[in-house]
Each structure stands twice: as structure tokens, then as C-alpha cells.
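From the shared-data thread, chain only:
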Amino acid sequence: EVQLQASGGGLVQTGGSLRLSCAASGFPFDDYAIGWFRQAPGKEREGLSCISSRDDSTRYRDSVKGRFTISSDKAKNTVYLQMNNLTPEDTAVYYCAVDAEVPVCSIYGLYDYWGQGTLVTVSS
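Structure, as C-alpha cells:
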């Protein structure tokens, strides 16, 4: 059974940093991508970043390039999202998801499995 567990959210002041973690298990796939998404109140969910299992290649949404960094620790089956210089516009529920059987990742892919969200609140 594929399971994803997102954690690391919390309350931070403007300009602060957080690191989100996505612990993954039960993957029967040879190639896959793990992505980070967020959904703010009253807004649609948006893809932020993804990483491919095959070669650790990454993609970022333009609005988070230079502030967010995705990385993976295969030994721990965990993907991280380091978020720096946060602003109130980053306040949202953040989710991780897996796109199965893909050689490269896309933040616009059809992700098959989703974890529960973790809330990030950035105060002004």
C-alpha cells in the first residue's frame, strides 16, 4: 500500500524558513516522481516542485524558484521541501504526492497518490 506522510508545517514569521518532509512507503514502481503542492483558502491547488526518482532531476514553479528547494534521501524514503524567505502569500495546506511510473517529473502531472496535508501559516 502506497503511503505518504507530510509533516513539518507550522507558524512562522515573514522571512522565516520551514522544512517540510514527505515520508513515503509501499512504492512498487521502478520510476516515479514526488511532488509538493499547496492549496490556500479560496484558491486552487498548485504544484510547487517535484523530483524524479530516476535521476533526482527537479522542477519548480516560477513563483518559488530561488526560495524553495526540493531534495530526497532515498535511504530514509523521504523527500524534503526547504522553504526560505516565506511570506504571508505562502500560507496554505501543503501536500506531497507521487506520480507513478514516470521517468521525469512535472508539477502538472497526474499524481496518483496523495498524503494528508500539513498547514503552513506565515504571519506578517
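The two ends are 40 Å apart (CA to CA).
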